Structure formats: structure tokens, C-alpha cells
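May I ask for a protein sequence together with how it folds?
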Amino acid sequence: MKIIFSRHGNTFAPGETAIWVGEKQDLPLVASGIQQAKNLAGVIQQVGIKLNAIYCGSLKRTSDYAKIIVDELHSSLKPIIDPRLNEIDYGNWSGLSSLEIQKQGGGDELLGWENFGEWPKEAGWPGSAEIISDEVNAFANDLIKKYTPTDRVLVIASNGRLRYFLRLIPIAFEQCIQNKNLKVATGNLCLLEYTNQKWHLKFWNKQPELLL
């Protein structure tokens, strides 16, 4: 089974200040984000990938992204909404730019999260890294039970949540940290394959054109 993970498209237009958008902020896609979804659908068509399912979180930026892809593919699939794919709640950082977080004294924890995936202790994030990991593991196990080795599944999620799927593969998380490639850019893909009762990382944070 191959799982294509995609981060949703842009939610900020050119010139807008990007802010931290977590589970509580349900922003829509902007024009470029809609185009990113159409581009991904075009690549899937060119490669001839037959998707057996499409999963997404319940937030507009992921569910709309999935719907656009389905429409562009003229597919009969209906996106399956799973709250385990929703973005992390960024607590006190929500609605702030990275610069504002730094000015408020959160610079060290900001660097720890962005560069090393360290859950901040003083930012007021609800839950914990362990809870997110448990949800990701449960979601992955559900896919293993439901789909066959030859199936192809597309999963639309957000940056903070996506990095926890790396932990399904021993050493992969640490390797992405070393390569400074932990963050998944908007519209980019990651490919995981489940064979021989193990998850394998094929690539991480690549543009859709890599599939061609």
C-alpha cells in the first residue's frame, strides 16, 4: 500500500503576513491554494495513479483541497473526513506571526519546534505530542486493516500533523531533522509505503511533479 500525503494549499495571498493557523482557525484556500490542488490532480492524471481513497481533516483548507482534487479527476470517490488529520492546536501562538512569537519571548521554543519537532512547554498548546502520535498510529493502523498491498491512498493534512507520520519509520524523523527538511511546504507531497509489515519512507516534502 502506498500513501501519498499532501499538505493543503496556500491560505495566505502574496503580500499577506503568514500567521500560525492551528485547529481552531478554519481558513479557506486562497487562489494559489486552489491552483495547487488542481496541479496535484493534473499530476495524478498524467501519472495514471488510480486512487482507492482520499482522506482529509475536517477543516476547510484540507476538505476543500480534497474536494477540488476529486472534481478535477472526475472521480466518484468521496473524501473521507477524519479529525485525526486536523492540524495541531497552536494555543497561544494561534493568530501570531513567527516574529510576534519571538518578540513575546517564545523564540527558543519556536526554533525547537520548527527545527527539531520539540513540543513547546510554555506556548499553551492543548494535548501533547504523545496524544498526536497515538492518533497518527491509530489512523495508520486503520489504513493497514482496510486496504490491500496494491492500493493507493491520498491523505490531505497540515504541516504540524504531517511530521508525526515520519515517526512511523525508525530514524526517518531524525534524518529529516539532520537534512533540515522536517517542514512540509504547502502543496508538497510525502510518500510512504507499507510492505513486509513495515512503513518505508520513499520521499518527504517534494513538489507533486516528482511523481512524473
In short: Strands lie at 2-7, 53-56, 80-81, 152-157, 189-195, 198-206. The chain is about 35% helix and 15% strand. Helices lie at 31-47, 60-73, 98-116, 129-146, 159-162, 172-178.
